[in-house]
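Input structure tokens:
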């Protein structure tokens, strides 16, 4: 089967013909329909996020179950599924306290590049190829843990469903679960990729009164306005995105600020644009080597809550179907998040466009399907 392989850091992805072993116990074989192109994949390509290589990247996928291994009870061949990149174990400390997003076992699997059982199912002429985030969905097929599979309704187009595997669940959950934004709140969003635009939409659904969207790409600011932003800050040619937010909030700062880029400077700015006793939520993934700098006096005197949100603090088995119901009810726009569709062979073009900041979301389509013209 064809897959996009990252052989070494800072290289282009190579389309190779790989072997894929059949699913073992508690594993599932999925034929991919679509896989979104996410900044976390780009971080790996750039060497910012180190993972075992060679690997098949891709962690925002949706497809159809083709076969299941022994002992699988939660899904069956023919099911439409979204892949989850946090295959929580259900028995560690964090799963026990109701925080599967922090699952110790899922985290260690992500670092090892294997499936939860410790095995690798991908191969290249006898050499093992690692799984990225337990999903590896820049490939025609993937073998994943049953815990990484979320069955969904069959009337959702699978390219739209794929986005909910990472970007949408991350942004939506940061607003609904982590910050618990309430009616009438003011919200600032720094960075308008697939995650940031999902934060904008979730804030609108929660009844936020003011949603300030910040980016350097005018088209994304326009899109944010269409999706519910009330104000925009064009960050082209300036390093100061704090003052415009203060100006829009009577000098106080916003009740909530979300950082959806993962850069120290924008994390510090998000903290600075949060009002006293407000909340800053870092959603963007920075390099593990980077530090931020905060004024020590401001920590008690401004009493802001600075927190983070990993995969939207979600419970994928419940949240992903619920988010897709919002889409099908016309309350959440996933169509607008897809900027461009690519064939697997064009994947390096998709990453180049992402690196240039052109895309809300680019998506790789499999099986020759364009995903458009499905009546929606
Ligand atoms: Zn992602
Ligand atoms: Zn766990």
């Amino acid at each position: 089967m064809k897959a996009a392989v990252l052989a070494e850091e800072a290289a282009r992805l190579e389309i190779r013909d790989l072997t894929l072993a059949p699913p073992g116990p508690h594993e599932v074989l999925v034929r991919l329909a679509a896989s979104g192109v996410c900044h976390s994949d780009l971080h790996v390509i750039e060497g910012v996020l180190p993972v075992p290589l060679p690997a098949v990247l891709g962690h925002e996928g949706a497809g159809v179950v083709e076969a299941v291994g022994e002992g699988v009870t939660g899904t069956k061949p023919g099911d439409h599924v979204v892949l989850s990149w946090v295959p929580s174990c259900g028995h560690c400390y964090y799963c026990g306290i109701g925080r599967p997003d922090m699952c110790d076992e899922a985290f260690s699997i992500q670092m090892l590049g294997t499936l939860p059982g410790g095995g690798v199912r991908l191969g290249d002429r006898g050499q093992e190829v690692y799984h990225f985030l337990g999903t590896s969905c820049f490939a025609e097929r993937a073998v994943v843990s049953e815990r990484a599979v979320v069955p969904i309704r069959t009337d959702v187009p699978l390219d739209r469903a794929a986005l909910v595997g990472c970007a949408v669940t991350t942004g939506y959950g940061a607003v609904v679960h982590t910050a618990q934004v309430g009616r009438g709140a003011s919200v600032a969003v720094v960075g308008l990729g697939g995650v940031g635009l999902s934060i904008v939409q979730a804030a609108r659904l929660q009844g936020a009164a003011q949603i300030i969207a910040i980016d350097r790409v005018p088209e994304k600011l326009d899109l944010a306005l269409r999706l519910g932003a009330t104000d925009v800050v064009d960050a082209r040619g300036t390093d100061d995105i704090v003052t415009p937010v203060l100006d829009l909030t009577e000098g106080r700062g916003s009740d909530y600020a979300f950082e959806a880029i993962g850069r120290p400077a924008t994390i510090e700015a998000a903290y600075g644009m949060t009002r006293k006793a407000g909340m800053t939520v870092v959603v963007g993934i920075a390099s593990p080597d980077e530090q931020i700098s905060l004024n020590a006096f401001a920590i008690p005197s401004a009493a802001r809550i600075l927190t983070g949100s990993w995969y939207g603090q979600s419970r994928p088995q419940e949240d992903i179907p619920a988010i897709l119901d919002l889409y099908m009810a016309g309350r959440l726009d996933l169509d607008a998040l897809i900027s461009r569709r690519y064939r697997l062979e064009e994947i390096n073009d998709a990453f180049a466009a992402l690196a240039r900041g052109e895309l809300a979301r680019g998506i790789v389509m499999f099986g020759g399907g364009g995903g458009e013209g499905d009546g929606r």
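The chain has two domains: 2-164+334-365, 171-310. The pocket of zinc ion (ligand 2) is lined by residues 88-89, 92, 94-95, 103-105 (CB under 6 Å).
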